[in-house]
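Internal tracking record. Fields below are filled automatically when a chain is submitted to the structure queue. Please do not edit lines marked as system-generated. If the sequence contains nonstandard residues, flag them in the REMARKS field before resubmitting.
Queue: standard
Priority: normal
Entity type: single polypeptide chain
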Amino acid sequence: MSMTVVVTRNVSPRMRGFLASTMLELAPGVYSAPRLSPAVRARIWAVLEEWFAYEQDTSMISSLAYAGIDPRRLGDYALARKLPRTRGDRPSG
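SYSTEM-GENERATED OUTPUT FOLLOWS
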């Protein structure tokens, strides 16, 4: 049995709605599902990867934990993209 957690920052309503439809939203931007099959988890992640390309100034991390496995050996998967500031974005003064 596995526990999947996805933590997001500054994602679009489309992505929040999709995650909320597939997982329980524990707090704003924090989603969890205690029993996702590997196939369902892979499909969810595939959608997130595809939609992530259209997000701006967004970050997301997913963690997967299996019962009975040493937490120091967990595999983490992350997507993060920070767009560089342009000259017009810098505060004046």
